[in-house]
Write a structure and sequence with these properties.
Blueprint lengths: L8 H12 L2 H13 L6 H26 L3 H8 L4 H31 L9 H9 L14 H19 L1 H29 L4 H9 L9 H14 L6 H7 L7 H34 L10 H15 L4 H35 L3 H16 L7 H31 L3 H11 L7 H27 L7 H23 L17
Length: 500
């Protein structure tokens, strides 16, 4: 089985950027910034970037490039008993993909609804009642919402097509097409936002620092959370992507480019978002804080309100915004599927087409849960537990494996420096061994504390036990069971480690 490779370094960087740049950059980041000290939030944000985000990104690049495989293969090379961790992370990506595609289906629907602002004046009622048809509680599943299922099915078909084409002809091609267009649309949206009445009001809310907020532990926890989730680390994507690079690849430089480009993108996009929020607040005669919302509310309730108030070209800017969500989300969806596809191919000796069909087919079936009228409740619970526990705990175990169990972190540093123009210093092993696991452990403990004080989202305990803790248990057990299966292919020339 010949290992796939990227066509160009530029293609790899765009694919990695496409993985990192997602829905969280466009609509999660602004609300996190506003709620955690506004301009002052940049201090813990950059601390988190250089003590967790970039170090883990380098770790995943080095693991994938040195050992030439997906997560399970790489981890069992570090320690035979740790293959299950790679399956844990790959299954987490598989679960995220199942509901991520549903959110993209909403964005596709709203691209159509942008023509003539079909959501009307009451955008909140339209989204939750008319479009999603949300039931009265988590215990009421309701029927299938066909207006949600159809766009989701269309996007699944497109994802199948891209993934069947492989790393170079599929993933790289999609990234080269979508990322430049995405950046261009965000630039245009931001420029237009800056010209709106009240834009300065929004920018003041964005940049005015509240340094008192830095004394709150949750602000620092949220900074680590934002950086960690936005870089697409912790579910084997960057391990898999790096394994497709040629032997001579500047890993450190590529890592810095991807990390800083991702952060610059969300910082710049937030200028446009806050300008638009300032415009909406001015039109409604309220403060900016009264129109800021979370990820889903910002995307499908607040922004339609902004588009309704636009002085002209409403439909055009509505389409541009939701197509931006689509492109940002689709390149991330591709990267969520690839770790599992590569792992299945290596473990079971399947063709790429067969692996895509198995993994994406199963994930598409799972996504049906979220197109029911009560699906939003399940999506919310699954998303919270998978992100805050499934990803973060597995990342802690990953750095413990590299830094303490296998003691390979110094070897991995040498590998990065041997193939890179930009060298990383002695700070990196120290951060990986101590600072990163401690900071991520603080995130987990903080979330457990909040769970102890109050059940997440006020949901019934049974629903949190089943779709939260229960799902996490299934993921871990599944990883352990798959590890028991023998590898279909033994080490071969295409798997030889890249010597340092």
């Amino acid at each position: 089985m010949k290992r796939e490779q990227w066509g160009t370094k530029y293609g790899f960087i765009l694919a990695a950027m496409g993985s990192a740049i997602g829905l969280g950059n466009l609509v999660r980041y602004p609300s996190v910034v506003y709620e955690n000290g506004a301009g002052a939030f940049l201090i813990p944000y950059f601390v988190a970037l250089f003590t967790a985000g970039i170090p883990i990104l380098f770790l995943e690049y080095s693991l994938g490039h040195k050992y030439r495989g997906a997560g399970p293969w790489v981890y069992q090379k570090l320690s035979k008993k740790w293959e299950w961790l790679g399956w844990w992370q790959s299954i987490v990506a598989f679960v995220i993909l199942s509901y991520y595609m549903v959110i993209l289906g909403w964005a596709l629907s709203y691209t159509y609804y942008s023509f003539g602002a079909q959501w009307g004046e009451d955008t909140e009622s339209f989204f939750f009642n008319d479009y999603l048809g949300v039931t009265e509680g988590v215990g009421v599943l309701g029927g299938i919402q066909w207006k949600v299922l159809i766009p989701v099915a269309i996007l699944w078909a497109l994802l199948f097509w891209v993934l069947h084409r492989g790393a170079k002809r599929g993933i790289e091609w999609a990234s080269k097409f979508m990322i430049p267009i995405l950046v261009a649309m965000i630039v245009l949206i931001t420029i237009r936002g800056l010209t709106l009445e009240g834009a300065v009001k929004g920018l003041e809310a964005y940049f005015t620092p509240d340094f008192a907020a830095l004394s709150k532990p949750e602000v620092w926890i949220n900074a680590y959370g934002q950086v960690f989730f936005t870089l697409s680390v912790g579910f084997c994507t960057m391990i898999t992507y790096a394994s497709y690079l040629p032997k001579r690849s500047d890993l450190a430089n590529s890592g810095f480019i991807v990390a800083l480009s991702n952060c610059s993108f969300e910082f710049f996009a937030a200028i446009g978002i806050f300008s638009a929020l300032g415009f909406l607040a001015t039109q409604q005669g309220v403060e900016v804080g009264e129109v800021v919302a979370g990820t889903l509310g910002m995307s499908f309730v607040v922004f339609p309100q902004i588009i309704n108030q636009f002085p002209g070209l409403n439909s055009l800017f509505g389409v541009m915004f939701f197509v931006s969500l689509l492109f940002a989300g689709f390149t991330s969806a591709v990267s969520l599927a690839e770790p599992g596809i590569a792992a299945i191919r290596e473990k079971f000796g399947l063709s790429r087409k067969a692996a895509v069909n198995w993994l994406c087919g199963a994930s598409a079936l799972l996504s049906l849960l979220y197109v029911f009228k009560g699906g939003l409740y399940f999506l919310d619970i699954v998303d919270y537990f998978i992100n805050n526990y499934g990803i973060v705990v597995s990342a802690i175990l990953m750095v413990v494996l590299a830094g303490w169990v296998s003691k390979q972190v110094d070897s991995l540093q040498n590998h990065i420096n041997d193939v890179s123009i930009v060298r990383i210093g002695a700070w990196w092993p120290i951060v990986i061994r101590f600072i990163t696991p401690l900071s991520l452990a603080a995130m987990v403990l903080w979330n457990i504390y909040k769970e102890w004080m109050m059940t997440y989202g006020g949901y019934p305990q049974w629903s949190v036990n089943v779709f939260g803790w229960g799902l996490l248990a299934v993921v871990i057990i599944a990883g352990a069971l798959i590890q028991q299966r023998r590898w279909a292919t033994e080490p071969s020339p295409h798997r030889e480690e890249v010597s340092s």
